Known about the structure:
six-stranded parallel β-sheet, 10 helices
Amino acid sequence: MRNFIKSTLLAATLSVSSMAHAQEDITITLIPGLTTDAFYITMNRGAQAAAKALGITVDFQGAEEFDPVLQTPVLDAVIGRGPDAILIAPTDTTQMIEPLRRAHEAGIAVITVDTFIDDGKYQDGLGDADFPYSYVASDNIGGGRMAAQFMAAEIGGKGKVYVSNVRPGISTTDQREEGFKAEMAENFPDVEVLDTQYNENDASLAASQFQAVYARHSDIAGVFGANLFSALGAGNGVESANKADEITVIAFDAPTSIVNNISSGLVDAAIAQHPAEIGYFGVMAAYAVLTGNSVPTTIGTGFTVINAENVDDENIAKYIYSE
């Protein structure tokens, strides 16, 4: 299904490109979770590639921290300028519903990328937030399961592990944790998943949390960092304990900092999303909506596992996020 959706949108690219000159006044704004993160910078690169192909304008504007309190005024300012469509990575599943409803009520097409609002099920007439046209993202539950499979293989299918996460209420990291725990429970009964440690996107706090877990469980075998700072902090905590050779650290996302830690041995593997694809297909979906075409309500993109065996492979380099 995922390949079919991609093929459909690529075909749409060819068909709508012929109308691009007639649609040059279309404007789309991409509002990331935060502007300084390599994941969103890479997403914007894909969005700009789509904009160039279509001959339209895509602006990139957001806050410097992943926080609904900071994202809301950015969104309100964008609504005030009246773009035709907004692509947004909502920073909270519930707090961003009403701000995005204002965009919808202003006649602006809304598509969520990477993260979603409410339950992420749109255009079904149910729930408080079915008005976005589509959700374009990785299968984060599947990515969490992939991380669990790699973790289990690395620790021999048994031992204690835990998830280092940001905070509840962020759709992507919630789903990664969900997938990780479900895979362990269903297929690796000898792996004990300890309580999740929430770090509010603070790598220093994630490192100190590892130290606290290690003090209680000196036989800890692995940590899954559900996002960049969770993984970096956990890795730093493992390094401080001089246990890098004994404790497995799996990261989600693949900016240069994580890739460097894979090369040094501090991180064992990263589940790399394809953010450029998310940006590209997000713009294509928005353009299709604005030109009177229907789009799938969910558009999925893939993953690539980066580890010590392939980190130097030139074919893997394209999956490392831009800085």
